[in-house]
Amino acid sequence: MNDLRELYQEVILDHGRKPRNFGALPDANREAHGHNPLCGDKLDVRLKVKDGIVEDVKFEGAGCAISVASASLMTEVLIGKTEAEAGALFEKFHALITGEADVTLEQLEDLDKLAVFSGVRDYPLRVKCATLGWHTMHAALENNGEMVVTE
Amino acid sequence: MNTESPIIRPAGLDIARIRADFPILSLPSNGKRLVFLDTAASAQKPRQVIDAESHVYEAEYANIHRGVYDLSQRATVAYDKARTKVRKFINAASDREIVFVRNATEGVNLVAQTWGRKNLKQGDQIILSEMEHHANIVPWQMLREETGLELVVIPITDAGELVWEAYEKAFTSKTKLVAMTQVSNALGTITPMAEIIKVAHAHGVPVLVDGCQAVPHMPVDVQALDADFYVFSGHKLYGPTGVGVLYAKAKILEAMPPYQGGGDMISSVTFAKTTYADIPQRFEAGTPNIAGTIALGAAIDYIESFDRQALLAHEHALLEYATERLQALNTVTIYGTAPEKAAVISFAIKGVHPHDVGTILDFEGIAVRAGHHCAQPVMDRFGVPATTRASFGIYNDFDDVDALIGGIAKVQEIFG
Questions:
Q1: Which of A38, B216, B275, B333 is deepest in the core (most CB within 10 A)?
Q2: pLDDT tens digits for range A54-104
Q3: Are A96 and A120 in contact (CB under 8 A)?
């Protein structure tokens, strides 16, 4: 049960239930659709980028608690970041979740509250859930409008 | 909550003894008793099947239909014997009607690529149901790309049953095939296959039956059904992966062009001309899954060592008990409530995504499927992206159902 709580931390449950920055973003100028064919999760991420700064981000879609909470927290940390910073955060978050790189939490000060997802790395099958929103955001910044598929 | 089963447990089956045949069930899962509720995806294997496969490699392995030496002859005899076992198991008229393939998916693809390519042209129609597995949709779509044929999809009701009037009215002069499941993998619905075939034949249309979920659960008689094609996978029948069966009536198989070219499917080869072997070898190019096929024969022996009606009754009792306990939880919705169901229950817990359900149940040692079950049109039909599915096999008992209900309580505790 302790382990489960490590995965499903209160912050994740809270954002899963009440996602922040959830909805349409009519003045978005970057957009991508994300899809995880394994579970059917679908997320749209829209950003408003001006002078290289992410001024606003919103997402819409349906998914599990992990994917919705991850996208929700992502939108919170991205607002105000430069495109380059957003890209770097994506890389760091990915490293944290997959456990691929030797990233310590201390080195991840930028990740801030995103550290609650560190428990996901013990669940390889759930990594796709935690990164769907991020991949979609990244695609929106890199190639506007492309469909992102994680599997 | 009432934890007592109101259902009379069928006599004559010693589930504890059956469980002891399956080595994996004695291993813990996340430190707990493994509660395996994903048999519809793939069944666990009894010692008898594992031993049969090992035995081939340890004692009687060589390539088949080739050598004149003793080992090759023994392997050939064992392989051919497996064909006879399959023939008897589904009551086909002849061993020649049994083609070994990798799995049911390959069986459908074989029919689409040989019979389909030869007999279907632009404007022809194939009737499917809304509850088909992707394996009985995509091969026909691929053929549609090639030929310009049309797929006619028969809808299902809210309970998950075929809309019968729609089926009866779907036939036109262009209808060339009905391809339909006997048991829905996502909903558990048992379709009225004998009647489905009767109607199709009245229109002169052959029928391909996806028997993947049917064969492990109920006795199947392809002659009584009068099925033209019948496919199933070995791994869902407590057999190994990598071997499946395509049954087709001999006169249909005889008229079908070969599938893949290679060794074992020819009668003679020169660079000028190759003559193909007779059925079923014509469809079995290359060295097949020899050990797996022999082990599939062992799986059939295993299943047939039980009173199949008693197995059916046991699985049905599990289904009824699980349905009743799930229905008692007001946060649970069951998808697929047809009166005739196999032991498969798809459900949703209010406010919790199936993936989260699956992860939390896994913590309790409970293996369920969470996802679209390779039946996305079914998910679309019910307006859900995915469901959690518990499916039962011969080794499940009432404790497994109780564990599932206990696991769902944990889900609600976390997400409550």
A1: B216
A2: 999 999 998 899 999 999 999 999 999 999 999 988 988 888 888 776 666
A3: no
Residue type, B330: N
Chain B residue numbers with beta carbons less than 8 Å from the beta carbon of A7 are 359
Indicate the residue of B355, B376, B379 with minimum beta-carbon distance to A64. B355
> What are B's interface residues with A at a Cβ cutoff of 8 A?
351-356, 359-360, 363, 370-372, 376, 379, 385-386, 410, 414-415
Name the helix (H) or strand (E) containing B275. strand B274-276
Look at B356 and A17 and tell me if their CB atoms are within 8 Å. Answer: no
Which residue numbers of B are catalytic?
Answer: 374
Strand order in the sheet with B98-101: B98-101, B244-248, B229-233, B207-210, B175-181, B125-129, B150-154
> What is the token pair recorded at B179?
């391809």
Q: Show residues of chain A in contact with B360, CB under 8 Å.
A: 4, 8
Fold of the domain spanning A2-149: Sufe protein. Chain: A (3.90.1010)
Residues of B in contact with A38 (CB under 8 A): 371
**pLDDT number for residue B15:** 94
Query: Start-end ranges of CATH 3.90.1150.10 in chain B?
Result: 15-33+307-415
Asked if the Cβ–Cβ distance from B379 to A40 is below 8 Å, we say: yes
DSSP line for B302-315: HHHTS-HHHHHHHH
CA-based nearest distance B374→chain A, Å = 9
Highest CATH level, class, for B50-304: alpha beta
Domain residue ranges in chain A: 2-149
3-state secondary structure of B247: strand
- Tell me which CATH code domain B15-33+307-415 carries: 3.90.1150.10
The total number of residues written for chain B in this structure:
416
ipTM, two decimals, is 0.85
